[in-house]
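Newbie here. two chains, one complex. Structure please?
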Amino acid sequence: MKHKLMLGRYIEGYSLLHRLDPRSKLAGMFLFIAAVFLIDSYITLSIGFAFTIMIMILSKIPLTYYARAVKPLLLLIAFITLFHIFFHSEGARLLKAGVLTVYSGGLEKGIVAAGRMTLFISFAAVLSFTTQPDRIAGALSSFLRPLQKLGLPVDRLALMLSLSLRFVPTIFEEAERIWKAQVSRGFSLAGQPFKEKARRIIALLVPVTVSAFRRAESLADAMEARSYRLGAPRTQYRQMSWQQIDTLFLLSFALPLYFISLLN
Amino acid sequence: MKAIPIRTLVYTALCSAIFIVFSAIQLKFAFSPVPITLQTMAVIIAGMLLKPRAAFLSIAIVVVLGLLGLPVFGGKSGIAHIMGPTGGFILYFPFGAMLISLCIQALEAKLPQRSLKKHAMYLLVFLALSSWLAYVVGVPWFMASLGNVSLAKALALACYPYVTGDVLKSVLALLIFFALHKPIMQLRGQQASRRKPASELHM
């Protein structure tokens, strides 16, 4: 099981980014996404990269961690890049290779598309490396609160988010335990015909799912036993505090937005 | 009656977590160069075990978490996935779960529960169709994301290689549903019996 991959990407640290309010980081990410969507040339792409690398350095997390975050999507990035290179016919022709032809416009589009994808991944990694998942959920709930007036049940959604995040490591541990129990009884997926493999997958998935549902029942009972009622007014144990540094951090995103817009 | 929303809410969160866990599991078969993930199977399970609105919410929560940068799609950064050419398929998942749930509701309303297995073929056909419905959203998204792509090209790249896998996943999900249905109904039955009013217990 890739237990480490799942929501366990938070890296303990005391950098400036770690200490920021999660809401400022989340808002910063939204602004960053808007900026990246405006990127459409080499110049604007380099501005995006310069800003992102600066943020990465501020997080005091080694760049190899970010490279590792990009790695699972390299195939997708390569696919997008090659697609643009070979199927766009704008600008000067650079290369003729049989049926395929490379133009400067297509090459730029391909590299820019790859760059944008990489920027998305990198900045998302900054957020998940420097912010605990439950704090991200808290920040999201905070942003959704104005929608309560539109009838959206924000409190329930916030609770669902928290419960969902809490369930994930538990289910992983349970799946790993059941997997090992099955393997100790001779379970193996290697070299089996499809029908047998399907039967064995079911033998693995059914106990995991039933166990998870049993746990959900217990949790619901425990919540009721602790006097939880949906819709009742409640206080918040975990508080978020906005500092001046959060404002400055958010304002810094105006710079790339401004320059990228200017150069388009 | 107020107890019911809490339970529904917990189940919804649980199915979100199951989706995240299943997204991390990949299986390789000899006949397919593309590894098959259990991601869509989790969507089907959520649709089968939850009511339509809860099924939609359980998968929508994961999509939102992915948009926020959490690696909920098999360890990959979700935002790049959703913004990329395959994002349309991911955005379809909440609606797919809701459709499956609506179909289950319709079938259970018409049929006694014990005869559900007799209509497994109808269920299977619908599951496969709802899987294929993802391409109605995913393929145009694929075309728009890459730009300057013909429909035939998009279908060849994003649709045809995966159709067989979807059918197989539907079969697997159906078998899991039948295996799960009884124990989970038993679980709910136990809880329901325990919540009888005190007056009934003394009759």
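Moderator note: The mean pLDDT of chain B is 71. The domain at 6-201 of chain B is CATH 1.10.1760.20 (Arp2/3 complex 21 kDa subunit ARPC3). Thread marked as resolved.
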